[in-house]
Amino acid sequence: MGCGESKEEKPPPRRASQKRREGISAGAVDMDAVANFEKKIVPKTDEQMELLKKTVESEVLFSHLESDELQDLLNAMYEKKYSAGDEIITQGDQNAEEFFVMAGGEVDILIEGKKVASQKEGCFGELALIYGTPRAATIKTTSDTVCFAVDRDTYRHILMGSTMKKRKMYEDILAKVEILSELDTWERSQVADALLTENFEDGTEIIKQGEEGDHFYIIIEGKVSVTQTNEAGASGQVAELGEAQFFGEIALLTKEARKATVTAVGKVKCGKLDRARFERVLGPCEEILRRNMEKYEKFKAQ
Questions:
Q1: How many CA atoms lie within 13 A of 79 on its CB side?
Q2: pTM for this predicted structure
Q3: Residues 87 and 81: beta-carbon distance below 8 Å
């Protein structure tokens, strides 16, 4: 189940007299403060850590965190217990200080005093911390409930630190990708922000010839082998790709099945775009990408 505060389409309108708190995405980021932020470790049982990890990993909000960043977030969470009838957060509150993961019990989600949903697992409270807006809903317990919370500063520094590191890593790589020389600085930053990181172990088939393709990949670290089977049934390597090179574009450009198999040689880290993001941020490069398709046709013709 997703984050409770996200259930309505948008937060209620803010009155002119309401002062907007600075959200994670608002204003200038103090990079020194992020770099020097002191990590917190709150002891937990193995069972509690496993529950938190399972819940947080399923949330899109945290999908871009590296394993060490996710561990920092889990380490910083602390237990909070509530009795039936308690309000964990209150709609309209402008002093949002915590984000919550449920560990037991049940809550109702109320908007303008009316119940819109109930929740027994998952998380809630992230919107006000991200955007600096008043709480968008009231979360009220219907039974004794246990949550794990993380404070606003920790939440902000871990996510902002991750975002800055990710953007820097991708911008360094994208500057080396030849086809992106056609993009201006702003367009390249849009690609950097849209990429998601995925890691592959040695021997993993990242894409497979004949399968439907939904993602485009840029290699951040490592190497891959590109092989193809022609109509006669003969297979062979058509390329070996490394850092700042890319693959997977053909299926997205032609909407046809994958033309080759790409296999990790050693450990490989890639940045990937799904079809919608690919079309949105790489539209200016389509002509150059189509020219690169020719190399995959050479072996097929042999």
A1: 12
A2: 0.53
A3: no
